[in-house]
Specification:
alpha/beta; four-stranded parallel beta sheet; globular
Protein backbone atom coordinates (compact mmCIF):
# COMPACT_ATOMS: atom_id res chain seq x y z
CA UNK A 1 0.00 0.00 0.00
CA UNK A 2 1.28 3.46 -0.95
CA UNK A 3 0.74 6.63 1.08
CA UNK A 4 1.79 10.00 -0.28
CA UNK A 5 0.79 13.43 0.99
CA UNK A 6 0.29 16.39 -1.32
CA UNK A 7 -1.28 19.82 -1.44
CA UNK A 8 -4.31 19.40 -3.70
CA UNK A 9 -4.07 23.11 -4.59
CA UNK A 10 -0.80 22.43 -6.41
CA UNK A 11 -0.94 20.98 -9.92
CA UNK A 12 2.67 19.83 -9.63
CA UNK A 13 2.15 18.01 -6.32
CA UNK A 14 -1.07 16.39 -7.51
CA UNK A 15 0.55 15.27 -10.76
CA UNK A 16 3.45 13.73 -8.85
CA UNK A 17 1.13 11.91 -6.45
CA UNK A 18 -1.04 10.52 -9.26
CA UNK A 19 2.04 9.43 -11.20
CA UNK A 20 3.45 7.70 -8.11
CA UNK A 21 0.16 5.87 -7.52
CA UNK A 22 -0.02 4.76 -11.15
CA UNK A 23 3.55 3.52 -11.06
CA UNK A 24 3.03 1.60 -7.81
CA UNK A 25 -0.23 -0.03 -8.94
CA UNK A 26 0.41 -0.48 -12.63
CA UNK A 27 -2.18 2.13 -13.59
CA UNK A 28 -5.27 3.77 -12.10
CA UNK A 29 -8.91 2.89 -12.62
CA UNK A 30 -10.47 4.08 -9.33
CA UNK A 31 -10.34 7.57 -7.81
CA UNK A 32 -11.85 9.00 -4.61
CA UNK A 33 -11.61 12.75 -3.99
CA UNK A 34 -12.21 13.63 -0.34
CA UNK A 35 -9.92 16.54 0.61
CA UNK A 36 -11.80 19.41 2.22
CA UNK A 37 -11.90 22.13 4.87
CA UNK A 38 -14.77 23.82 6.70
CA UNK A 39 -15.24 26.87 8.86
CA UNK A 40 -18.37 28.45 10.33
CA UNK A 41 -18.30 32.19 9.64
CA UNK A 42 -21.02 34.85 9.20
CA UNK A 43 -21.25 36.08 5.63
CA UNK A 44 -20.17 39.63 6.52
CA UNK A 45 -17.00 38.27 8.16
CA UNK A 46 -15.76 36.08 5.28
CA UNK A 47 -12.21 37.04 4.35
CA UNK A 48 -10.77 36.80 0.87
CA UNK A 49 -8.25 34.27 2.20
CA UNK A 50 -10.92 31.97 3.69
CA UNK A 51 -13.03 32.15 0.53
CA UNK A 52 -10.09 31.41 -1.76
CA UNK A 53 -8.62 28.66 0.42
CA UNK A 54 -11.97 26.86 0.75
CA UNK A 55 -12.67 26.94 -2.98
CA UNK A 56 -9.10 25.94 -3.84
CA UNK A 57 -9.07 22.89 -1.58
CA UNK A 58 -12.68 21.72 -1.81
CA UNK A 59 -13.36 22.37 -5.50
CA UNK A 60 -10.19 23.12 -7.44
CA UNK A 61 -8.37 20.33 -5.60
CA UNK A 62 -10.92 17.80 -6.84
CA UNK A 63 -10.66 19.21 -10.36
CA UNK A 64 -6.86 18.88 -10.34
CA UNK A 65 -6.92 15.30 -9.03
CA UNK A 66 -9.49 14.24 -11.61
CA UNK A 67 -7.77 16.17 -14.41
CA UNK A 68 -4.51 14.34 -13.72
CA UNK A 69 -6.17 10.95 -13.14
CA UNK A 70 -8.64 10.81 -16.03
CA UNK A 71 -5.99 10.13 -18.72
CA UNK A 72 -4.95 7.10 -16.62
CA UNK A 73 -8.56 5.91 -16.44
CA UNK A 74 -8.92 6.36 -20.20
CA UNK A 75 -5.77 4.31 -20.72
CA UNK A 76 -7.25 1.61 -18.49
CA UNK A 77 -10.37 1.47 -20.66
CA UNK A 78 -12.67 3.01 -18.06
CA UNK A 79 -13.09 3.29 -14.33
CA UNK A 80 -14.80 4.95 -11.41
CA UNK A 81 -14.57 8.37 -9.78
CA UNK A 82 -16.26 9.19 -6.48
CA UNK A 83 -16.25 12.72 -5.12
CA UNK A 84 -17.11 13.53 -1.52
CA UNK A 85 -19.61 16.38 -1.53
CA UNK A 86 -21.79 17.21 1.47
CA UNK A 87 -25.33 17.79 2.63
CA UNK A 88 -24.20 21.41 2.14
CA UNK A 89 -23.93 20.66 -1.59
CA UNK A 90 -27.65 19.95 -1.91
CA UNK A 91 -29.13 22.53 0.47
CA UNK A 92 -28.05 25.85 1.95
CA UNK A 93 -27.50 26.97 5.52
CA UNK A 94 -26.26 29.94 7.51
CA UNK A 95 -22.69 30.85 8.40
CA UNK A 96 -20.94 28.61 5.88
CA UNK A 97 -21.15 30.29 2.45
CA UNK A 98 -17.61 29.38 1.27
CA UNK A 99 -18.13 25.71 2.11
CA UNK A 100 -21.61 25.62 0.58
CA UNK A 101 -20.40 27.31 -2.61
CA UNK A 102 -17.52 24.86 -2.91
CA UNK A 103 -19.76 21.82 -2.44
CA UNK A 104 -22.46 23.01 -4.84
CA UNK A 105 -19.65 23.56 -7.33
CA UNK A 106 -18.35 20.08 -6.62
CA UNK A 107 -21.77 18.59 -7.35
CA UNK A 108 -21.83 20.46 -10.66
CA UNK A 109 -18.32 19.31 -11.52
CA UNK A 110 -19.28 15.71 -10.72
CA UNK A 111 -22.29 15.83 -13.03
CA UNK A 112 -20.34 17.52 -15.81
CA UNK A 113 -17.61 14.87 -15.68
CA UNK A 114 -20.21 12.11 -15.57
CA UNK A 115 -21.87 13.26 -18.79
CA UNK A 116 -18.63 13.83 -20.68
CA UNK A 117 -16.79 10.71 -19.53
CA UNK A 118 -19.67 8.22 -19.73
CA UNK A 119 -19.00 7.28 -23.38
CA UNK A 120 -15.47 6.31 -22.33
CA UNK A 121 -16.60 3.85 -19.66
CA UNK A 122 -15.88 6.17 -16.73
CA UNK A 123 -18.69 6.62 -14.23
CA UNK A 124 -18.62 9.55 -11.83
CA UNK A 125 -20.79 9.87 -8.72
CA UNK A 126 -20.78 11.82 -5.47
CA UNK A 127 -21.65 11.00 -1.89
CA UNK A 128 -23.14 13.81 0.19
CA UNK A 129 -22.75 13.07 3.90
CA UNK A 130 -24.06 15.12 6.79
CA UNK A 131 -21.95 15.43 9.96
CA UNK A 132 -19.44 12.62 10.48
CA UNK A 133 -17.75 13.27 13.85
CA UNK A 134 -14.87 10.84 13.15
CA UNK A 135 -13.45 12.81 10.23
CA UNK A 136 -11.14 15.81 10.37
CA UNK A 137 -13.90 18.15 9.18
CA UNK A 138 -16.33 16.51 11.59
CA UNK A 139 -14.04 17.05 14.56
CA UNK A 140 -13.38 20.65 13.53
CA UNK A 141 -17.10 21.26 13.12
CA UNK A 142 -17.81 19.86 16.59
CA UNK A 143 -15.17 22.10 18.16
CA UNK A 144 -16.69 25.11 16.46
CA UNK A 145 -20.21 24.14 17.53
CA UNK A 146 -19.07 23.89 21.16
CA UNK A 147 -17.62 27.39 20.84
CA UNK A 148 -20.98 28.53 19.40
CA UNK A 149 -22.90 27.07 22.35
CA UNK A 150 -24.41 23.92 20.81
CA UNK A 151 -23.22 22.00 23.87
CA UNK A 152 -20.64 22.05 26.62
CA UNK A 153 -18.87 18.85 25.52
CA UNK A 154 -18.39 16.72 22.43
CA UNK A 155 -20.90 14.16 23.71
CA UNK A 156 -23.56 16.76 24.50
CA UNK A 157 -23.04 18.54 21.18
CA UNK A 158 -23.38 15.29 19.24
CA UNK A 159 -26.54 14.39 21.17
CA UNK A 160 -28.06 17.83 20.56
CA UNK A 161 -27.22 17.71 16.87
CA UNK A 162 -28.57 14.17 16.47
CA UNK A 163 -32.04 15.36 17.52
CA UNK A 164 -32.24 17.24 14.21
CA UNK A 165 -32.02 14.01 12.21
CA UNK A 166 -35.01 11.68 11.70
CA UNK A 167 -32.79 8.70 12.56
CA UNK A 168 -31.69 10.48 15.77
CA UNK A 169 -28.00 9.79 15.23
CA UNK A 170 -25.07 11.19 13.30
CA UNK A 171 -23.31 9.23 10.60
CA UNK A 172 -20.12 7.22 10.89
CA UNK A 173 -17.15 6.97 8.58
CA UNK A 174 -18.19 3.38 7.87
CA UNK A 175 -21.66 4.53 6.76
CA UNK A 176 -19.99 6.58 4.05
CA UNK A 177 -17.18 4.14 3.24
CA UNK A 178 -19.63 1.33 2.45
CA UNK A 179 -21.32 3.42 -0.23
CA UNK A 180 -18.05 4.63 -1.64
CA UNK A 181 -16.96 0.99 -1.99
CA UNK A 182 -20.24 0.23 -3.75
CA UNK A 183 -19.82 3.13 -6.18
CA UNK A 184 -16.30 1.93 -6.97
CA UNK A 185 -17.51 -1.60 -7.68
CA UNK A 186 -18.83 -3.14 -10.88
CA UNK A 187 -22.28 -3.25 -9.25
CA UNK A 188 -22.56 0.49 -9.89
CA UNK A 189 -21.65 0.26 -13.59
CA UNK A 190 -25.04 1.62 -14.78
CA UNK A 191 -25.11 4.56 -12.39
CA UNK A 192 -23.41 7.89 -13.10
CA UNK A 193 -23.89 11.57 -12.33
CA UNK A 194 -25.71 10.83 -9.09
CA UNK A 195 -25.39 12.45 -5.66
CA UNK A 196 -26.19 10.06 -2.82
CA UNK A 197 -27.32 11.86 0.32
CA UNK A 198 -26.16 10.17 3.52
CA UNK A 199 -27.80 12.20 6.24
CA UNK A 200 -30.07 10.08 8.40
CA UNK A 201 -33.12 11.47 6.58
CA UNK A 202 -32.26 15.16 7.03
CA UNK A 203 -32.96 16.06 3.40
CA UNK A 204 -35.96 13.73 2.99
CA UNK A 205 -38.51 16.47 3.65
Amino acid sequence: MLFRSCDVRSRAEVAAAVAAAAAAMGGIDRVVCSAGIFRFVPFAEITDDLWQRTLEINLTGTFLVCHEAVPRLLAAGGGRIVTVASIAGVRAGANSAPYIASKWGLVGLTKAMAVELAPHGIVVNAVAPASIPETGIGRSSLEQKIEMGWGSSVEETIANQARNYPMRRLGTADDVARWIRHLLSDEAAWMTGQVLSMDGGATAA
